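Quick review question:
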């Protein structure tokens, strides 16, 4: 590899200090593929979550959704990295489960903190994704200062 990393779309060098490791547009499809596979597998089996684990499952699902929406947003911003996605996913799930466990031990529903944090992040990422598609599909607005 040369000292100037090229981006995966062939549009020239990547910005200084930034290296794309996703392997092109295929990199985005990895989390989406696993999300769809997980949904299909989950819907095929009659799986009952015990009540004691229901909150842990809920925050883990929110952590996963946050990571997937973040990955989609990062790909649209041309900054997606599989390493960042995987480490972020694992970290989100472990922190959310740990917070829920700590709350159970203290007798406080700390899982609500994870639900609120992940909910806010999911909606922010969804808004950025929507904004990307709305702005890319419309012509630029004329400058009203002239």
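Suggested answer, residue by residue:
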């Amino acid at each position: 590899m040369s000292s100037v990393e090229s981006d995966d779309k062939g549009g020239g060098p990547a910005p200084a200090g930034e290296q794309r490791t996703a392997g092109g547009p295929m990199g985005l499809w990895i989390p989406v593929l696993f999300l769809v596979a997980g949904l299909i597998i989950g819907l095929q089996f009659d799986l009952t979550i015990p009540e004691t684990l229901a909150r842990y499952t809920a925050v883990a699902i929110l952590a996963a959704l946050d990571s997937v929406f973040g990955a989609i947003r990062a790909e649209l911003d041309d900054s997606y990295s599989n390493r960042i996605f995987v480490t972020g996913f694992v970290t989100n799930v472990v922190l959310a489960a740990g917070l829920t466990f700590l709350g159970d031990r203290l007798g406080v529903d700390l899982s609500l903190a994870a639900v609120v944090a992940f909910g806010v992040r999911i909606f922010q990422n969804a808004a950025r994704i929507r904004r990307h598609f709305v702005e890319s599909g419309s012509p630029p607005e004329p400058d009203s200062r002239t």
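Why it works: The first helix runs from residue 26 to 44. The CA atoms of residues 86 and 107 lie 31 Å apart.
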